[in-house]
Amino acid sequence: MWFGEILAKGLMVAMQRLFELSREEIFDLGKLFDIIGGSLVNLLLPLLMILTTLFIAALIGAAGVGGISFSAEAAMPKLSKMNPLSGLKRMFGMQSWVELLKSILKVLLVSGVAFYLIEASQKDLFQLSLDVYPQNIFHALDILLNFVLLISCSLLVVVAIDIPFQIWQHAEQLKMTKQEVKDEYKDTEGKPEVKGRIRMLQREAAQRRMMAALPQADVIITNPEHFSVALRYKQNTDKAPVVIAKGVDHMALKIREIAREYDIAIVPAPPLARALYHTTELEQQIPDGLFVAVAQVLAFVFQLKQYRRKGGQRPKLNEESMPIPPDMRY
């Protein structure tokens, strides 16, 4: 072990200088402190190398488990940590018993490995008394560092079991109970009355957008009293007629009032109006099953405009001839 050799040389130089102290140096505190300081400097480099290696190993281990994180909040003093009742709860809680069991297993494992190493290294340990200086120091530090290395490797077994267990335990602690899920849902979604208010505001906003788009309609198909559906069909932009507004009762009346303001044709066709209202959402094209019926209405509107400009025979719309599929009759 090259660490052992470096540390042994530093220790040998420091001890040799300390054993060579003269009487004058021992009683002169200034010189004595200088000599002790110089001896410590000789040990500083090997110790610094060992500590740096341990620091890097700790960083690698932390990064491998889940990343390196630093929080200044954890270092802040908290009076709650000084509460003796909280301390007693932690001492006798399930987590404390689990940690105690893990600590006992670690001690047993490390003690067993250490006992085995001592038994296996008896010859080397007896050989130390026969070695001459400084070989005995090198040999002793090699044995010591081998012990540390092998015991550290034995702890990898503990780490391989403990880390997955801690990850699983942390995941279990993050899971919420049914009551916590309900509380979180209330916090994120709000109380029922608040959600009702939000839905009402959303409906009002949608109605305002719908009324703003109503002047683009080509025809209003009515029930005639309870349903009103506004259709837009622009040959250059729409592949099929699109529902841009619809409503029942009061909203249906409002749609008809705006249609009269903008001179939009209002065509009574109860079966078609109900079918469009129930099968088509806003800004959606009409279903294929209603193409023919809507085409008849649009043709009627075109003929009605021609009649108003040129006169002649007033066109008529035969509601009974409109083909409405059975599954679209409401």
Provide a compact summary of the structure.
The protein is α+β, with helices and mostly antiparallel strands and 330 residues long. Helix content is 66%, strand content 7%. The chain has a five-stranded mixed beta sheet with strand order 4-1-2-3-5, with helices on both faces.
Can you describe what's shown?
- It is a single chain.
- This protein is of the alpha+beta class and about 325 residues long.
- The protein folds into 2 domains: about 1-60 and about 90-175, no CATH class; about 215-330, secretion proteins EscU (name from scop, 3-Layer(aba) Sandwich), CATH 3.40.1690.
- It is built from 12 helices and 5 strands.
- It has helices at about 1-20, 25, 30-65, 85-90, 95-120, 120-130, 135-175, 180-190, 190-215, 250-260, 270-280, 290-310, and strands at about 220, 225-230, 240-250, 265-270, 285.
- Strands 4-1-2-3-5 form a 5-stranded mixed sheet, sandwiched between helices.
- Helix 1 packs across helix 7 and helix 5 (about 95-120) packs antiparallel against helix 7 (about 135-175).
Order of helices and strands: HHHHHHHHHEEEHEHEH
Strand order of the largest sheet: 4-1-2-3-5
Average pLDDT level:
79
Structural class: alpha+beta
